[in-house]
Design a protein that fits this description.
Elements: H1 2-15, H2 17-45, E1 57-64, E2 72-74, H3 81-88, E3 92-98, E4 102-108, E5 111-120, H4 124-127, E6 132-134, E7 146-150, H5 151-157, E8 167-170, E9 174-182, E10 195-198, H6 199-205, E11 218-223, H7 229-235, H8 239-244, E12 251-257, E13 267-268, E14 271-272, H9 277-304, H10 306-318, H11 323-360, H12 371-397, H13 401-404, H14 413-449, E15 459-464, H15 472-479, E16 485-491, E17 501-502, E18 505-506, E19 518-523, H16 527-531, E20 535-538, E21 552-555, H17 556-562, E22 571-574, E23 577-585, E24 600-604, E25 611-617, H18 622-636, E26 645-646, H19 647-654, H20 656-690, H21 692-700, H22 705-739, H23 750-776, H24 780-785
Helix pairs in contact: 1-11, 2-9, 2-11, 2-20, 9-12, 9-14, 9-20, 11-12, 14-20, 14-22, 14-23, 20-23, 22-23
């Protein structure tokens, strides 16, 4: 019986090559798209979950409440937190501190380079499963002069040698001993580094980490197997208040599972508020919708051919075939098409995977040795086959032989309504995707072109390090005379992110019970000119005023917080240093456009510090400016490699995820529309076939080709308009929710939805016109004969 079904199915495929090709192509594209999305989702869900003790690793988070502001959530904590928690809470088995990623100069003999790494405390390698090829993970970071390097760095700095026990010079200041060599980190890991340096060196260079009032590093804990994380999280909530003996302290601690941090990273007013998990959910829905659209396409094409299969069903029923066997036959045919489509889909995915990886910046592969992968493929095929074959099987097996063998096949209103409902559903999804594509593109474009309050074009920055810190003034003065250079300055922070904040700001009349958070950064002369920041009132820092080393410039947001009617010339105390406000600048973006502009204080740096050199280049003279920068840099800092960044290019990397999502949305929207059009093509063919006699009669009575085309097209266009009525409210609500995460966002305008509807109508009309014109041009003598 099964062999017979397969033979019949195969013969039907060969007999109707065009129909079979369209069916297989539609299903294959839907399955390929779904498979790509599932591979991407699987990779997203696997991030940071490879650690042996994943269920017991947590990161310590802080909720901070400030006057007049929402509660802020950050992973930055005091540098002494981890060891203190381990000591005071027996439920915490191990605890470690880790810094942000930094670039340091590593030197071994004549080989040197800037490498990315972090500082970490002793338990770090015991908490996380970063395997060592050499060394003991329990003691590798115990020495104050320890450094653990990656296998890549070991080959670079010690080619053909055993790196363990060798010495590496860091930043031309300290010699550190290699105590371990790590295997290369997995791709699904968010903690990126090529080396780890002992925490003791960081404490030595940064004494502020010993204070409870200063945040910066991240704290990780490994819970004991029997500990309840929720209870421990509740126990440590007021821990900092207890340590500082300040019950009015506004900081509360809580635990978040480490592997949840990648997908669940957004917090609003102290509560979890999404993150990348939103994109994961969105694309899972998109994958399901595209697969459903592909299946609907199959159903419509199968229905379009129902007239040709009706007599076959009638004959089979007359000779004794049961409805169940007919249903099994049609479902079997759809399963055969699904398996053929799967083969095509796998080939398509294999060909597209390199481009998809480049687009998403991932390293996705077919996990051929993973049983789960094969189960996903089998499940995808069975679901597609059963879903796409269900309606044709039910419909065709229900036909009455008495009716179909007479040569007259009429469909009930419910059947026509169902088919039209499928088209409405298809184009509703398509219109939603088109509208979403337009809004996402406009938002990304808005971010990329928004006036940040400073000029990011022609602005280059590079690390202020080595000898430059000691000779900055001489370096600046010489560089200003070089070709292509317009202005030179320096800052603690890079142009796009001010990462330091404080509550240590007071002024005359301030309410002492309020704790107000200010962003702050130290700058050098010429900062406003280098950044091209507009002064609202007052003046810039100047060497002509010796008191400027204790004076301040604030932004408009800070002026509103402070409340001075005329802030210039008024007193301000910052970190205990009394001074006056000499200028107020227009608000400019100092962090992500996802957040609003916060109060900012600029102050003069009175001694050498780590930061960046800012260089404003002459328009059109970038090449000359870079040559001048490199020449002067190498003169003053010959032991460091010359590195620089363009602010406008770095700005683009800040919104990489949104750019990727925008591109994926465009591709998936196009694919969904294409598959929907295949279904519409099938329904148009079915309608034209059903109305063959009517079209012939109308032509005999004088109807023109235009009249026939309009007659056949108007019903479909009405379906597309009905689809827009269904789709637009859903699209508006979905995109409004997506835009709410941006503090700076576009307004959703009516024309965005109008473009989506008009585009859908045009695409539908283009698809229908082929069948409509073909039917209208048919010789009426021939069409009437066939009846």
């Amino acid at each position: 019986m099964l062999t017979n079904y397969l033979k019949i199915a195969w013969r039907n495929l060969l007999r109707n090559k065009t129909f079979s090709l369209i069916n297989i192509l539609g299903l294959a594209l839907g399955m390929a798209c779904s498979l790509l999305i599932l591979l991407w989702v699987q990779d997203e869900l696997s991030m940071d979950r490879f650690h042996a003790n994943d269920d017991r690793i947590f990161r310590v988070m802080e909720n901070q409440a400030w006057a007049g502001q929402d509660i802020g959530t950050t992973p930055s904590t005091p540098g002494i937190l981890a060891e203190s928690l381990k000591k005071d809470f027996p439920e915490i088995e191990k605890a470690a501190m880790m810094t942000w990623e930094g670039n340091m100069l590593l030197t071994v003999g004549n080989t040197f380079g800037k490498e990315k790494g972090r500082y970490a405390s002793g338990d770090f390698l015991s908490i996380f499963s970063f395997p060592l090829l050499q060394g003991d993970f329990r003691t590798a970071l115990a020495r104050p002069d320890a450094i653990v390097i990656s296998e890549k760095l070991a080959h670079k700095y010690f080619p053909g040698q055993d790196a363990l026990g060798k010495t590496i010079r860091v930043d031309n200041t300290d010699d550190l001993m290699v105590t371990g060599v790590m295997a290369e980190l997995p791709e699904n890991n968010t903690l990126k580094f090529d080396y780890l340096i002992s925490w003791e060196r960081f404490v030595k260079l940064n004494p502020w980490v010993k204070e409870w009032g200063n945040n910066g590093p991240r704290a990780f804990v490994l819970m004991s197997a029997k500990a309840n994380p929720e209870k421990v999280s509740a126990k440590i909530r007021d821990y900092i208040k207890q340590k500082t003996n300040q019950q009015t302290n506004n900081i509360e601690l809580f635990l978040q599972k480490n592997s949840d941090g990648y997908l669940h990273s957004n917090f609003k007013n102290g509560q979890l508020n999404g993150g990348r998990i939103e994109y994961v959910r969105m694309f899972v829905v998109v994958a399901i919708f595209i697969l459903i659209i592909a299946c609907i396409n199959f159903m419509n094409l199968a229905t379009a051919r129902s007239v040709k299969r009706a007599k076959e069903v009638g004959v089979r029923k007359v000779v004794g075939a049961m409805r169940q066997s007919l249903m099994a036959q049609f479902v079997g045919e759809s399963l055969l098409i699904s398996f053929l489509a799967l083969f095509v889909a796998v080939v398509v995915v294999a060909l597209m995977l390199p481009m998809f990886n480049e687009l998403t910046e991932k390293h996705l592969t077919f996990r051929l040795k993973d049983p789960t992968f094969w189960l996903i493929l089998l499940g995808l095929t069975l679901v597609t086959g059963l879903l796409s074959g269900s309606y044709p099987a039910l419909f065709l097996s229900s036909l009455r032989p008495v009716v179909v063998l007479k040569g007259v096949l009429k469909f009930k209103p419910s059947a026509r309504f169902f088919r039209k409902g499928l088209v409405v559903f298809q184009f509703s999804l398509s219109i939603m995707l088109i509208a979403g594509m337009i809004i996402i593109y406009r938002q990304i474009r808005y971010i990329q072109t928004k006036n940040l309050g400073f000029d990011k074009e022609n602005l280059v920055y590079m690390p202020l390090e080595g000898e430059l810190k000691k000779n900055y003034e001489t370096f600046r003065n010489e560089l200003k005379t070089q070709p292509g250079i317009q202005e030179i300055s320096a800052s603690w922070s890079d142009p796009l992110e001010v990462g330091s904040s404080t509550i240590g700001v007071t002024w005359r009349g301030k309410d002492t019970t309020q704790r107000i958070l200010f962003n702050q950064t130290a700058v050098h002369y010429g900062y406003l000119k280098a950044m091209n920041i507009r002064l609202k009132e007052g003046r810039d820092f100047s060497p002509a005023y010796t008191t400027d080393t204790t004076n301040y410039i604030i932004n408009e947001a800070a002026a509103r917080k402070i409340g001075y009617k005329n802030p210039v010339g008024q007193e301000l105390t910052f970190w205990g240093r009394k001074g006056v406000i000499v200028g107020v600048v227009k608000d400019y973006h100092i962090n992500s456009l996802h957040v609003a502009i916060d109060p900012l204080i600029l102050h003069m740096q009175r001694k050498e510090f780590d930061g960046v050199v800012l260089a404003r280049t002459q328009p059109g003279q970038t090449r000359e400016a870079l040559a001048s920068l490199e020449k002067t840099f190498q003169k003053f800092n010959p032991r460091y490699p010359f590195e620089y960044k363009f602010t406008d290019q770095e700005f683009g990397t800040y919104y990489k995820s949104e750019n990727i999502i925008s591109k994926l949305a465009n591709y998936f929207a196009f694919l969904a529309i294409f598959i929907s059009c295949l279904g519409l093509f099938g329904l148009a063919a079915f309608t034209a076939e059903q109305r063959t006699k009517e079209i012939g009669i109308r032509k005999v009575l004088g109807a023109s080709v235009t009249n026939i085309v309009l007659m056949l097209s108007k019903d479909f266009l009405l379906l597309v308009l009905l689809s827009s009525v269904v789709a637009l409210p859903v699209a508006w609500w979905t995109m409004r929710s997506w835009l709410e995460k941006y503090a700076n966002r576009i307004d959703i305008e009516w024309w965005m939805f109008a473009v989506a509807v008009v585009a859908s109508l045009f695409i539908a009309l283009f698809t229908i016109s082929f069948q409509s014109v073909k039917a209208a041009l048919m010789n009426p003598v021939k069409s009437l004969k066939t009846e």
